[in-house]
């Protein structure tokens, strides 16, 4: 027997996480897209903006003032930072569950959040209730969460890569290095000069070495895993690919351990984390368009440096896919429902 | 009630049309992958070659000599030209239906085929029985076909673009021009220098202007539609994208006609051909990973030149997707079964 | 004996034609960069914006109000359309020669210009005096010109491709087709969504089929060559490369002619037009970073359709390089001075 | 007064380092290309293979058996590993100076070389005489060298990045990390599947984590600088750009030091090493086509991890450009002669 579908709302559907949510929800057997809002594009059929959705999404964008989000079972915020914290409280009061794909509820320490995001938090009380939506870490809490803070793209790839090592306590947690490379869609659909094809194409650069907003988010997660404060150097890079994050992680081993077995055991029951065979090198295209994270662990020349390679699609496992995975958990659906996506290769 | 799945065999699954067939069949509700052969890679798990298939395809490549293709309901040939014509006769004799994704059965005039493909045809009799697998043109014949010649990628995009004009007899069929641009995957997984990233990247060129194998295939199809011999200039180009064909078609109008209405009516019942609104410009990424063809028709400055813009994903509607569409028709499945693929954008 | 260098000014140096002019002028033996203006970036060292110029350009951008352009021998306008026509008259009055890389002086018919560019022309009288700076067509007039209208990128590639055919009167000039493909830098350094890496990358589309501003410019030039009004269908496309234009041109032959000889003779004394051997296909990277135009001419299947393939680097022969070529002619320097640029391949 | 040009020979000019040498030598005022050999392409005009060289290089490839390399002043080997060691001894005996762009003479420890390169060294004696051609390290020895081992691309970027730190002894040399990213041309013009556009495009991966041939070369250089054995973890990555290497280097500071001043002082007299201002992030395109190395040094959050960002064009400073720089030093020319190359941006 087919149960009734849940009603889903999306706030802010004109960016890349928005169109990706629509791609996934269009075919989700248990979700019905009830409303999608956009202040700037109200009235415009969604498929007029994203022609890829022609035939799959019939709705138009609704003006936020007119949108009846209260009638939804769950609302996704695919908005810039600072929006969800304004609107989530009222929705939660009405019993609507909320998944924020932005950063408003990711960091428990309000002062840290306010420093990195440069604004005053509108509802610090709710932050304490929010569950950090990394299912591989917090599955049980997500199940009953009213408010889920969907992780950032870099944080997802880095935390999944370090998790087995930190939980097992086999590396020096004070000197972790995450050298991460992101495709350009990670910056969203923002029209900044540096993201133009003629600027970002055939070009590679680091950025934010002095400090990136994902640093405190990652540090918080790693600290939870380690059970003590970690020291992390995080260097993000912009690479000329559309989708994909490749995190290369370095740590110093402090105990002898079978690294391959450690990773395989930690993730043996995880549908969306795939530990590759010894010696492998995951490539970003092997997860393109899918919710998979693929990981390989190396110990070059048998030394005491462990190298973890972790790849995700930043728009799927790093954003919209993980949000749907969280929704599935929250509503008791199969965790992979609507997420059976064979990666597009080539 | 769920009927038994059909058994599917793939001959030659190590190229791009092979991996794309696997991507589609992995989730097809009525098809079961029975066997996939490769002479060179026998014994290798398919997912070791294409890591995108990890978790979806468990089989290994089978040596052709050991493969029991006769037990299949349908066999796809995703092989170089000249292979299917060797093996199809025996399979057909056993009652196995065959879809050839290569060119062996596409051209009815054997002499023409032998000239362009540089070999003697092994089974000219079968060519006459083969149905050219463009569903929008030959749906009824495909339904009962034992042997389907799956169209080439350029021919699909060009024929769907010209079809309404030629069937309606509104253009000068003696002076057609098809300026077509293909992504690099159209060349297959061949290791030729010109297809290296450092050669094909940030580069654009025409090729085969003096003559390309798809020219006689397209001419044959257009001649069928027009009911008389057409004159076609076909110029293919290599463009630095991975997937996608954009065909820009030119013809001289000989009758006044509402072009937009003509195209919309011709394709109103076609699931996989999408006529865009007046004035639109389809982009290749709007069909990336999907079986859709999107078309727009223009009449610049109200002159007598009609310009048709037609885009497909060369590996889907231009190869594996169309092959599955043909299979669906042949076996009485819904034509879009397993082909509900929302394009990947961005 | 070394003569004194000429003093060069650049108005608007923050776009791609600006930085390209700087790249070329930095090493030009007879040109001295006197001043480069920018309203928005006044005071900023040029090399802080374009790190490629570190060590080659020491100047900072000057506020236009403070810039002493009158002391220059020549001023290049690398500005948006509509700027040069405001400022050129005063400079010309002071005896400064002007090269406009934008479109203000390209079209002789003021009404046509005003229609396509959507503004009232500020100095229609000067348009009549301006020389269209295509050296292969107008070398002698350029020599003595006070005001040169540097051609657009598409117009350069298309006109050089059609010129031998139209001058010789061997094609039907009423039905010309130019199917042109441009790299993304052709749009300038504008931050529009469609030019983002995640939008333009791995994507191909036509645009402006109903009408593009380069259409009247090209038609004017072709009409001059043919000596009678031409009919042209012009379809531009956006292709995922940074630099480069590939024009594929179609015309119907009306006379028997040795096409290869025709092209070779027409361009035998042209330093920057390279006619490739029979059967060749020029590629855009073969001119990357250089002022070369490479052309091949084909007659597929010996029919009456001639196909011309013409490639340039849109920022060099299509903009800044041609501007320097014009400057060289205007000041009596060797035409290739500062333009000995071996293309960057790969 | 112009002195006579030196005669230059190139052995193996059909790869990317070969065509890049030709690009640079074509305009070098003191070098004359005397002969360029290729076994496979003997007789073919060089510009028929690389159309970018049309008009600049008139020669054809010469069969090695017929080539009179003994008449050259200097011979560059742009060959696969293992060729130069066969041919260099005879040339050196005739007084010809040799620059090997491959790896035959880079590693002083013959056993190490033989292990990593999988062959027996043909002339171990010469290895001891060879000078490692990193001018910023060995300028004086290069001046009088008969045989120069031109450094690898990764080794150039990594060594220049670590050099100031190791020479000053301010970091823990036992735990260095080099996370390096290379464009695809770094693999040469080899037709391996993984380097196809449809494989390497829109894709990012690490490779050779277990061990890469450049590891012993880098370790040897770093050990020289540090004056004691270093411990290095080196992880190379393949990134979808044509040219460019970005090395991100990590080390633990052991002494307080003004890092910015340290780097600026170390390189203040180096023409081809550009230390960027504090806080900058060099991008690969800022050196595209040029012999420049640009470096920035960071100390994130004021911790004890120093992060160095170092970019080069792998084919210029990482290969052919550095070879010409070495030639200039060997023959007493200005070190930047023929290397005044403004990077191509965009």
Describe this protein's structure.
4 copies of one chain form a homotetramer. The first copy, chain A, folds into 2 domains: 6-129, Rossmann fold, CATH 3.40.50; 153-314, Dihydrodipicolinate Reductase, domain 2, CATH 3.30.360.10. In chain A, α6 (135-143) packs parallel to α11 (316-330). Chain A has 11 helices and 13 strands. With 346 residues, chain A is of the alpha/beta class. The relative contact order of chain A is 0.15. In chain A, 30% of the residues lie in helices and 19% in strands. Chain A is globular and about 60 Å long. Chains A and D meet through β7, β8, β9, β10 and β13 of A and β7, β8, β9, β10 and β13 of D.
CATH topology of the largest domain in chain A, by name, is Dihydrodipicolinate Reductase, domain 2
The biggest beta sheet of chain A is recorded as: 7 strands, mixed
Number of helical segments of chain A? 11
The chain pair with the largest interface is: A-D, 48 and 48 residues
How far apart, in Å, are the first and last alpha carbons of chain A?
38 Å
Domains of chain A, number = 2
CATH superfamily membership of the largest domain in chain A, which one? Dihydrodipicolinate Reductase, domain 2
What strand order characterises the main sheet of chain A?
8-9-7-10-13-12-11
Radius of gyration of chain A: 20 Å
| CATH top-level class of the largest domain in chain A | Alpha Beta
What's the SSE pattern of chain A? EHEHEHEHHEHEHEHEHEEHEEEH
Query: Which structural class best describes the helix and strand composition of chain A?
Result: alpha/beta
CATH architecture of the largest domain in chain A: 2-Layer Sandwich
* % residues in beta strands of chain A: 15-25%
Query: What is the oligomer described by this structure?
Result: homotetramer
Catalogue the unreliable spans of chain A: none
Secondary structure: number of strands of chain A = 13
Helix content of chain A: 25-40%
**3D shape of chain A:** globular
